[in-house]
Amino acid sequence: MADSQSPSPVHPGIAAIRSLALVGPAGAGKTSLAEALLQRSGMLDSAGSVERGNTVSDFDPLEKKLQHSLQSSVLHMEHAGLRLHLIDTPGAPDFVGQSLPALEAVDTAVIVINAQNGIELMASRMMEVAAQRGLDRLIVINKIDAPGVDLPGLLAQLREAFGRECLPLNLPAEGASRVLDCFFNIVGASDFGSVGLAHQALVEQVVEVDAAFVERYLSEGDLDPRELHAPLEQALREGHLIPVCFASAKSGAGVAELLDVIERLLPHPGEGNPPQFLRGEGPEALPLQALPEPEAHVLAHVFKIVADPYLGKMGVLRVHQGMLRKNAQLLVGHARKPFRVSHLLRLQGKAHVEIEQALPGELCAIAKVEELHFDAVLHDDPEDAHIHLAALDFPVPVHGLAISPARHGDEQRLWEILNRLVDEDPCLRVEQAAATNETLVYGLGELHLRLLLERLRETYRLEIHTQPPRIAYRETISAAAEGHHRHKKQSGGAGQFGEVWLRVEPLARGAGIEFVDAVKGGVIPGQFMPAVEKGVRQACAAGVISGHPLVDLRVTVFDGKHHSVDSKEVAFVSAGRKALVAAVREARPLVLEPIVAVEISAPESAMGDITGDLAARRGQVSGTRSPVPGVIAVQGLAPLAELASYQNRLNALSGGQGRYTLTLSHYEPVPPTTQAQLVAGYQLREDD
Ligand SMILES: Nc1nc2c(ncn2[C@@H]2O[C@H](COP(=O)(O)OP(=O)(O)OP(=O)(O)O)[C@@H](O)[C@H]2O)c(=O)[nH]1
Ligand SMILES: [Mg+2]
Question: 486 has which bridge partners?
Fold first, then answer.
């Protein structure tokens, strides 16, 4: 590790590496483009298609059936002496648990825009996240072959939405059947705009990052683009240049040129911005720069987990520093015991080959290692135990479903499989509801959950019963109160005795549960305090008035009694639990409901009806914007409980054209009538 960039020349193997992620809206053509690049680079004899279900990256049966990518897939190409690592990601918002982590593994984000649809929400979102993560960005306008597309209009819109840094590297020509390079080339007739002017705009933008180049440019008039490599890389790194390329994955127009751009202009691992590693936890964590040098200690980051029903757990990773070799001993985070890399793989969709080593900047996979988990940092130096990547901002899953196996006896298997699926997808959550003994799954949307069920059915042959979506209510208190319980049992032989006094106080939203031991004079001996805490936490997890977990309170145990012979752990667990229940009942308990931030986009004409409907669902509109002409996106807040089956309603209001996304905003108390219903319903179940 060093503080500054090493002056040593770049290792030739590393200079030959490119890594990119194809991101952007569903249906933009990312998978088709990946296929076209594979074919063009000579890795495939002929390109497959999404329609025929034979692409390298959409290999999963469910992906073929839906004709959409559902998982990120890692591809690899060798061409012109270079090695390209490419990640194809799903565009549907429900699968950002797969697409966002891809941005942690590459030097360039390629944002693919669908020329037929203009700038869709996922394109804006990915532009933003890629910029936050310090990635170089390249925009590809795909489907230039499609009839009726307005390419000059779209280019103007891109510059309006993402800034004047968006400049075309090539322009469509001959009715979009090919594209003309504007960086190395200055002549030729394009379908719109002048190649010469586009060239000039690019060169001017690039030289701006370096005063010496500005001076040369002003005195010489033009500069040979081949001399502009260093300022070009700097402009990409600083977001001062966001190149735009045109392509058609279908006709092949612009694909060879895109490959050429990747090879000649995109950064190798030493030319991108360094990834955001931190050493240490919390506010004390310090930024750390990984060095893409083979001699350094190994530092690698797991950005994807594949839980294969037959092959076991596989971690897909990017090597950030050092050379990762087969048979190396690696440590996972702060684990003490190393594991051996017995299978080091290079992936090509579902296929893989064994490799001997991976250089910094390369993507590879380690198979059959149970210790691996999403976001793990692998290293070979105990000094590096507390290194991690700055966390990604994942949306919180709030769409819930209660599920159970159709066949009795499959409960345990279901639970194990669900946990494996959660390992793979950071936006999926499972929970065992203590109060109702149900298995709850939470995802980002209806599609996310529907596919989870299909996967259980098709991959794991598990038939599942579901109940209507459950809302993840919580309980809290709004006043301080005290509670007490004496647990005493005298049955024949040894008795059970434990007595607890405790106080509960409300804490701020999001504070969780704070447990404080304030007993004096050993009235509850130290060895029983964990039992009291266990009882308290059990009661909190089960909830008191409505059967939902209690949150945001401080519990202070301040008095109690024990018995030198009859005091037992179980007695204190029970006393702690019941004292808490007693205190909470007196502390003006409230039921909280999740409030979600919604963004609804639909044709302008439907917006009046949509906002009216949202208001009737206790929602509030906070703003609107127009992502593409004719479409309005309304942002607002609404209780999640009011949005059950919202897509059906939206379809009715917008002629099937509306879309919406939800993210958890915060929790708020439910209206008093709802609280009364939830409490009454819980009592009925309890009394059964
Ligand atoms: N006309 C035309 N159609 C294309 C082009 N590229 C892709 N398509 C079609 O667009 C549809 C979507 O393509 P995909 O490659 O699956 O898009 P994607 O971006 O991978 O979509 P997700 O996996 O859902 O994120 C398919 O029907 C493709 O055949 C193109 O350049 N021109
Ligand atoms: Mg795809």
Answer: 499
- Are 182 and 250 found together in one domain? yes
Give the pTM. Answer: 0.81
Is pLDDT above 70 for 259? yes
Q: How far is the CA of 154 from the centre of ligand 2 (A)?
A: 22
Judgement on whether residues 298 and 224 belong to the same structural domain of the protein: no
Tell me the average pLDDT across 287-299. 93
Q: Quick one: which atom of ligand 1 is closest to the CA of 58?
A: 23
Task: Determine phi and psi for 570, rounding to 5 degrees.
Answer: -55, -35
Question: Between helices 255-264 and 30-40, what is the axis angle to 10°?
Answer: 80
Looking at 438, 470, 502, the residue that finishes a domain is: 470
User: Which atom of ligand 1 is found nearest the CA of 91?
Assistant: 25
Across 89-110, average pLDDT: 96
- Dihedral sign for Cα atoms in the order 77, 81, 83, 89: negative
Pair 177, 258 in one domain: yes
Of the ligands numbered here, which is closest to the C-alpha atom of 112? 1
pLDDT at 435 over 60: no
How confident is the model over 571-601, as pLDDT tens digits?
Answer: 999 999 999 999 999 999 999 999 999 989 8
Q: Is 397 inside any structural domain?
A: no
Query: Which pLDDT score is estimated for 238?
Result: 97
The answer as to whether 688 is a domain residue is: no
Q: Which listed ligand is nearest to 73 at the C-alpha?
A: 2
Is 597 in the same domain as 640?
A: yes
27 lines ligand 1 (CB under 6 A): yes
Non-local (6+) Cβ contacts of 312 within 8 A are: 367, 368, 370
Task: List, in sequence order, every beta strand (DSSP E) within 224-298.
Answer: 242-246, 277-279, 286-288
Domain that residue 540 falls in: 475-587
- Is residue 313 within 8 A of residue 368, CB to CB? The reply is yes
What distance in Å separates the CA atoms of residue 442 and residue 403, rounded to the nearest whole number?
A: 11
Q: Which of 31, 32, 70 to mutate to test the pocket of ligand 1 (most atoms within 8 A of CB)?
A: 32
Tell me the pLDDT band of 655, cut-offs 50, 70 and 90. Answer: confident
Of 192, 172, 168, 163, residue with least CA distance to 182: 168
Is 50 exceeded by the pLDDT of residue 2? no
677 vs 629, more confident: 677
Of 50, 98, 447, the one to substitute when testing ligand 1's pocket (max ligand atoms within 8 A of C-beta) is: 50
Does residue 26 have its Cβ closer than 6 Å to ligand 1?
Answer: yes
Considering the domain boundaries, does residue 394 fall inside one?
A: no
In a domain, 293, yes or no: yes
- The C-alpha R_g of the chain, in whole angstroms, comes to 29
Based on the structure, what is the number of domains in the chain?
Answer: 5
| pLDDT score of 469 more than 80 | no
d(CA 632, CA 157): 15
| Cα(122)–Cα(128) distance, integer angstroms | 10
Cα(577)–Cα(24) distance, integer angstroms: 50
Instruction: Give Cα 464 to chain centroid, integer Å.
Output: 26
Which of residues 417, 446, 470 is at a domain's end? 470
Q: What is the dihedral of CA 365, 369, 373, 375, to 10 degrees?
A: -40
Q: Which of 22, 23, 31 to mutate to test the pocket of ligand 1 (most atoms within 8 A of CB)?
A: 31
